[in-house]
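pasting for ref. prot 1 ->
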Amino acid sequence: MQEAAATAVQHAAESPYGLGPLWAQGDIVARTTLIILVIMSLASWFIIFTKVWDQRKLRNAAAVAESKFWSSGSIKEGIERLPKGDTFRMLAEDGVRAASHHEGRLTDRIDMHEWITMSLQRSSDNVTGSMNSGLAFLASVGSTAPFVGLFGTVWGILNALISIGVAGQASIDKVAGPVGEALIMTAIGLVVAVPAVMGYNWLIQRNKTVVDKVRSFSADLHAYLVSGARVATGNPPAPAAAALKK
């Protein structure tokens, strides 16, 4: 029994077909196609992991803003309680800056409400654009990777048929082996494409949830700066409302 197992392992190691022989025996086109698929796969997984990290970081920042910022006695105090570099701190600073600098020739024809709205909208759009960056690449990989793999398969079958024609032999072992080896490229293309498509759809859904938190914060901040009342929770305490109007 041990001898049979050893023989099977040795036969598998010496098999002329598979990913290793495909690389060793492939020409520059086959190797380039395989490298492109590997790069697409690594880049897709990198984007997926980094975007999940960014989304988790922003969700935690939203929880911190909800607990610390809105419990402060003033906008200035709330900003100071948020960590430096925090997305919600940036939004709050932009809103306060817009409210404080609504003056001068360029803004004479824009009322304060619209001026703050444009400033916060611009900041929210920057956050949304940052969260969506890289997702287009995932969509491109999901739609093109199968065709890249198919190209590798077609190229491999073409080379196999040419070799068979030159050798003048068309037995089943001469046809099935090279064709089966060429089909590995199609399988690799699908392995690259499926995670990219699933990751894209998953990240889009998670992005929607995170971006909604940013927009809700912007809306509440806008209401505070304009009227001294938060949309989500109603009127703030009197000291806070007075501080916000300063």
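and prot 2 ->
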Amino acid sequence: MDLLILLFFALLLFGALMIPWFEGLLKRSSYLIIAILAIGLAFVLRSIFLNYQSGDFNTFLARWIEHFRTSGGFSGLAENVGNYNVPYLYFLALFSYLPLNDLYLIKVLSIFFDIVLAFGMMKLAGVFTSSVPKRLSAYLITLLLPTVILNGSMWGQCDSIYTAFAVLALWLVLSDRPKLSMVCMALSFGFKLQAIFILPIFLVLLFAKRIKFWHFFIFPFTYLIEILPAVICGKPFMETLTLYFNQADSVGSNLNYNSPSLFAIINTKTDIATFSAIGITTALIFVLAILAWAWFSRDRLGNDALLGIVVLFVVGIPFLLPHMHDRYFFMADVLTLLPAILYVSYIPAAVFTSFASFLCYYLYLKGKLILPLRYGSFAIIAVLLLYFTFTADKLNSRRTKIN
């Protein structure tokens, strides 16, 4: 491993330990020992996978960095490269200037945002509980979630980035800082379109009077600032602004791409267009139904109920939509963890979600199935049923803080 990368890795390890320390969560020696062991394990596991080169790295990410290297770094943003939005490409352009291993740079970036994600989960947990063990658990278990470890350190993907900003947005809005929340949500959307899975919660927050209508204008303003550097470097403005719309026809024609969605159960290759339309319509009805439920329950939308609705969105939308990929349940993996920490009876839901995603990760990374993907889909159905019950229960109780 490059010496500088090793130094960065060590700094990340140190920083990961300092975060709960400065949050005052390690005052007891037992908590300090647990944190050292858990964070040490999290980084040992990540170090094991650092040399692994996934197909996505070899086929896409490595070539994109090479494009920037041969095109003058940030000047290469003027050209069409890759199918990621420009905020992530800024990092790749920056990496092209560094005389370091591209594989390690990409993975260290993702690991850094694993820590940001864990920080966000710890702060979000603090909205619901003052319990030090629960807040510390939210931080440590996030770092140890199998799909969080595999996504960045093995696969070399960046789903922790958009999810970290989404979790921070949720924490900020529930902490009565809606303007900063909108900034973080726009940053999340700027990195990955999959941020749309959580976006409907902001309409629910409007119903609950946790945000004001004018706060929504912060979102496009922030997004414009995100894409501005690429425009300055020569990329056409409208092409940059409408990148996600232009990619709508490039998601692929298969109903399912190795994900635990509904279409892992409905395994048909006939009349794909019809089944795709049915999936999109069903997902839209699902969202509208939850929004209607939230509207008629708007006087009872406490933090617990809002959390349940968030989970329904991030689990249910990718479950019902066609053309979903293996990593699209990453946000669900993370956010189903929080209720499991707050309420012991919801641990199975977190396990089911991680199990469903892990089946898909294993198939991609190892090229073989542990179990048929439909088992993951059945697990997701169980999670949805559990969270409909959770949300209904919390709508009958406005508790916002637990021990």
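The mean pLDDT is 94.
The chain has 19 helices and two strands.
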